[in-house]
Every structure is written in C-alpha cells, then in structure tokens.
Backbone:
C-alpha cells in the first residue's frame, strides 16, 4: 500500500519504519523538507535529528505534506495535535478526499506546563475537528492511547493482551483500519467505540495516561478493557 | 468503623450494603430524609424507591448529611457530582474536618443529552473542587471508574484482575484507603496516581467508559493497566 505518514517525530518515524519493513511504500510528510533535514541537534526531548534517523531507514522518503498525501492511498496523521489541521490543509483537500485518514494525534496543550492539558476535549475532539475540516475524508481515530513502539508492536507487552480503540463515521473505513491494525501491527483486541465523537473518549485518556507514566515510571504500559 | 455514605442512589446503596455486611455501622446521608422515604415509584432509570431497598437492608440507617457526617469516621461521597459540594456543605465543615472523604462521584453533565459530558475537566476536577472547598478534609478520589457492583466486589470480573486508582494530597489517607480497598472489597491492583490533581485523569475516563458501555452493551467491564 502507498502510505503517507504526517509528522517527523517519534510516532511518525516508528510507524513509517514498521510499514516499510512490511514492504509498503512510505513517504513522510513535513512542512518544510529542507528545514527538517537541516536540523543537526536532538530536540528538547532528546529525539535525534531526522536526517540521522533517515540514514538508518533509507527506504522511508521525506517530502512535503502535499506530495506525501498525493502518494498515499491512506494518510496517517502523526503530527502534534496543535499542527494537525494546518498540516492537512497544506496537503490539500484534493489530495485527501475519499481517502482514509488515520488520526493518531492528541490535542496536547503544553502552554500551561507539565503535564499537558488538552486544547479541545469533553464536547469536541481533535478527530472531530479534522473530520469537519475535511468532510470528504474518512477519519478513523486510533492508536493515540499508547506509546509509539506499542502502537506498531503490541506483542512487546503481555503478549499483546491489551486494547486499542477505533472511532469513526465510516463503517467500511473502520473495518479496513481494524484489518490493518491486526495484519500490520499484530493487534488482537480492537474495540469499535462508534462514531467520530467517541474520539473524545480516547483523547481524554491522555490525562490519566500521562499520570500513569509518572506513577509507573515507564511509558511501557497500556489499557486493557477487561470484560 | 463508623461510616457515612452520602447519596441514596445505586452507588451509595451498593457501598452501604457491602459495608454493613462487613459489620460496619453505616448511616446514609440524604438532603431530606422524609422526601427520600416518601418516594414510592422507581426513578427514571428504574432504580427502586429507597424505602423498598431499605426494607431489605434494615441495618443501614438513613439520616441527614449532617448527622451522617457527625457519625462517620470516614465519609464516602456517592452523590451525583452536581450536588456533591452542596451535600458536603450541608454536612458542615465541623463534621468533616480532619476526616478522610472518599470521593467516588463523577462530574457528569446531563444537560446536553446522552451520553453526558463533564461539567468540570481538563484543568480542574470535582475532587479538587471538594478539596479546595473543605481544605481541612483529606480527600481521596477512587472507585469512580467502574460500576457500583464492581467497586465493592471486583472478583465478579476476571477474578479481580483489573485496576482501581487513588488520587489525593495526603499520603497517609491514601494508604488507609488502599488498605480498605483491599480488605473491605478485595481489590488487588491499586495504583496511586499522585496528588488530587490526578483525579482529572480518572474523572476523564468517564467519557470512554460511557461509550464502552454502549459498544460492549454491558457495564460489566473495567480497565486494567497492563504493565
């Protein structure tokens, strides 16, 4: 499958690396290709510069949001939540319409310090904003409730015995994404929560997720819905 | 232990019945004792009138919030979130100060229809409001993330292999409540999330909890933090 991954951070890199290892053709989209490649120092969180990472993953291409989206039969949004709408706008609706947009971003607001709060929640969500801004896309929210390495390799933890959620208005798109979650990444417990408004529920998991990271002193955990 | 349970709904009743079965002396607090006892028809959710329930649980006493709080060495707040501050105000700070207040309520806002949203979230929480309003109490938020019968009997589900959280500013109070969760109810996995602001995280679990109830067609489930 031709895939666009939006975002050059840890989440985008982790997903892109996994997908090319499966034989997919992946273009990572970024705002400014030269600016992304010009960075030579780790970011404040210690993430190595993109070009260092890309040298170890030469099959992953880097291009603009627009070129990546035109390439992708599916677009995976792994940008920071605050820049997601802008990234998709730069991609252009003509390169998105009719396609599945897998939204893994979270609306984290770091402006008030740590831990971050959410810049949209409760009566709206980032996924809903994306769906409203690009009504001809088929937005499926998923994978936003665990760290990146578990997104693409849930077997790393408890043999994969934990849960991932999908939210979206398009039943066929959710079924397709569910198949991909199982076939690409090895997820076994995928719960369809309902329409895109149910993404409020998964985005609002972030506050407890962030505090669990602090309490457990590791991000290597996930929620399982026991029933 | 002498215990006050605030709230005459399913949660308050379930907790009170469990506690008297363990030999504790429990007074349920209510706004207006006569009004509570005068109800003879089920509420809109089908909950039977309190007096029918009390006939089957004669050891559970019913009295005002004030009398219940004066009796209790610990107060369990199982009122609806929207009336919690008012209930505690009626109880009187003089009957609460120095005591542990176990807050199991959720700030559900039904005014916009179903599923409810939260009337406080993200940058504040009901538990924090209670702690600020009654600074001499020791508020511990817990048990607000699963249905009532699982609160008091987690073994009903998967042999108890799922998680309950505690949040609060007072370390000793959290340790005491953790002991009660284990000894009274049989919880085995209790995670201390940190100070009372971490109650934002557990209260914000309600939106996904409500949607899971819809998706799974049963409220008999709970979250397990797999790590």
Residues:
């Amino acid at each position: 499958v031709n895939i666009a991954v939006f975002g050059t951070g840890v989440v985008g890199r982790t997903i892109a690396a996994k997908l090319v290892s499966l034989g997919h053709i992946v273009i990572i989209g970024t705002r400014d290709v030269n600016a992304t490649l010009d960075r030579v120092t780790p970011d404040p969180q210690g993430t190595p510069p993109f070009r260092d990472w890309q040298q170890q993953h030469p099959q992953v291409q880097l291009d603009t949001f627009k070129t990546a989206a035109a390439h992708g039969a599916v677009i995976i949004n792994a940008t920071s939540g605050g820049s997601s709408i802008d990234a998709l706008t730069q991609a252009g609706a003509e390169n998105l319409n009719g396609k599945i947009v897998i939204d893994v971003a979270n609306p984290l607001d770091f402006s008030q310090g740590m831990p971050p709060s959410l810049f949209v929640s409760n009566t709206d969500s980032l996924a809903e904003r994306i769906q409203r801004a690009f009504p001809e896309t088929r937005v499926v929210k998923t994978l936003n409730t665990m760290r990146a390495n578990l997104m693409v390799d849930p077997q790393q933890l408890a043999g994969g015995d934990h849960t991932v959620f999908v939210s979206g208005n398009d039943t066929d798109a959710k079924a397709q994404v569910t198949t991909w979650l199982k076939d690409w990444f090895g997820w076994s417990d995928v719960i369809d929560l309902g329409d895109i408004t149910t993404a409020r529920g998964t985005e609002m998991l972030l506050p407890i997720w962030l505090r669990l990271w602090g309490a457990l002193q590791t991000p290597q955990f996930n929620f399982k819905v026991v029933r």
Summary: The longest strand of chain B covers residues 25-30.
